[in-house]
Amino acid sequence: MTRRFRSQVPEGDVWHWFEVGDDGRLLRQITLRGGDRVPVVAAESAELARVRDSCGEWGARLYEVVYGLPAPDPVPAPPHARPVDLREFDLAWGRARSYRQCEARHDSGPLPVGTRLPGTFAVSPWGPGVTGVFVDLALPAPGFVDAAVLLRAGCRWPDEGTPAEFEVVDLRVGGGRPQIRLRPTAVPSPGAPWPRPGPPRTAACCPR
Question: Distance between CA 186 and CA 178 in Å, rounded?
């Protein structure tokens, strides 16, 4: 039977919300800090395990940057814990996940926002001008440039195999695999060829 409860850590003004199985195995965790209840953890153990399976410890570190570090198993309920029903937990979970995905700064870990690194434009499954382009970074997870970045620049849609330098603008984790959101640091004028990248200013620290 799945149990859900929350408990406060008064010394740090921290609230932990836990969803656990019968054996105390952690399923989901929310941690809120301070009077504003800022989410610092919104982690799902099964999701983290899938990321670790697909991308190793490098991917797990990216996951922790985005969603925080969950508590180790087992998670016992302290005497002062308060029960939480599924609806209440899911509402808090949705808010915490949205904050960690969209508002928290992902500026630590193996690929902090602002990191510059070389890559090669890969296939665009949706065709030129639609959705975006994947980027091969020689890392365990792909890069991705949103179509809006290229359309606003008015540049030629990059051919598969075109090298460029990129800046990390965000990190996303979904479906058990991280995705590194990028923008090219330089784009060509309309009709001009893509510039070849120079040496990267900040090298990625965890190659494949």
Answer: 24
Shared-domain flag, residues 69 and 154: no
Residue 160 DSSP symbol: T
- Which residue matches tokens 């099964």? 46
Give all strands of the β-sheet with 3-9 in edge-to-edge order: 38-44, 26-33, 14-20, 3-9, 82-83
Give 77-110 as a DSSP string.
Answer: PPTT-EE--HHHHHHHHHHHHHHHHHTS---SSS
Alpha carbons 51 and 63: distance in angstroms, whole number: 7
- pTM for this prediction: 0.86
* Domain harbouring 126, CATH code: 2.40.50.140
pLDDT in tens, 51-109: 999 999 999 999 999 999 999 989 988 888 999 999 999 999 999 999 999 999 899 99
Task: Report d(CA 177, CA 121) in Å as an integer.
Answer: 19
CA angle 56, 103, 10 (to 5 degrees): 85
